[in-house]
Amino acid sequence: MTERRVIVKVPASTANLGPGFDTLGMALSLYAWIELAASEDETVINLYGSGLEGVPRDKSNLIYKVAQLVFKEAGVAVPELHISMYSDIPLTRGLGSSASAIVGALVAANALIGSPLTEDRLFQLATKLEGHPDNVGASLFGGIVVSAWDGTRAEKVRLEPHPELEVLVAIPAFQLATEKARHALPKEIAMGDAVFNVGCSSLLVAAFASGQLELIGHAMRDRLHQPYRAAFIPGMAEILEKATEHGALGTALSGAGPTLLALVEASSPRKDELEQFLLATLRREGIEAKTLWLKPCAGGPEVTTLVRDEVVPAFMERIKGEVKA
Ligand SMILES: Nc1ncnc2c1ncn2[C@@H]1O[C@H](COP(=O)(O)OP(=O)(O)O)[C@@H](O)[C@H]1O
Ligand SMILES: N[C@@H](CCOP(=O)(O)O)C(=O)O
Q: Per the confidence metrics, is the pTM higher than 0.90?
């Protein structure tokens, strides 16, 4: 059983999409790779690339801890592991790095022991670990995922992303921990704001489901979290207000930020104008940012299982044709 080695490619995600706080998520064409094998002696964790700087390489590592949770759930013991990881998903920027790590580790550990846990079980575990279902649902199921969690159970519906949808992200050079951005939110909100968000979030889901992309601009507006987080990201308010004038279908703070996200029609002739608007607005506020053009990722994690002694190129050799950096 433990003579296998698995490698999982897992997508990044953007949560909320504006009004769907803790509810809506979309998987993105930006990835992390996790390789897992049982070790006969000690645990070894290799993290490649500059994207994982500062992430622990001992048993306090999230991947190790999540893998052990899967083994415990399944009633098997695999105490020592060889873990390799490379990620193009920047940490703590609102692109779901922690959700990708959780989902990647759950799927890899489950595959390593012959997949005793169902996908639904993995979703429930992932939601509990992350504290909200939006990012983990998108990374686990791919596409656009609408989910509701009552603290005990998460239910979801996955929508196929419209083929014309493209995603522009502007990733500021600074980090903003999700925990900090959640602490900035009020404990109570006005009924009028709640009603506004129910309307926008419902309309946004209906627009995605029916392919009415022209409704995205009206629907992608929020009064629950973005106004309270704007102070962390100078320039954000202007971008959210004016990006549609520069060719965006709609814009939002990606997850808890600081990344800003614009949905765009692939055939739009104004992509360059929009990108320059985002960069110039942030730069005016003294914020350097990197832009990436992404697509919604329609699929969830891709799993490759190998017999352990099979002769295969080293981890980084195998994924190098696919990584962004
Ligand atoms: N591959 C990983 N291994 C270990 N910890 C990770 C990994 N990826 C992310 N994390 C943890 O998740 C944190 C980022 O999560 P969070 O603040 O929710 O931001 P986001 O998920 O938007 O990137 C990192 O600071 C790190 O502690
Ligand atoms: N719904 C959460 C989403 C956090 O996403 P992340 O990618 O920033 O971790 C929130 O808005 O707090």
A: yes
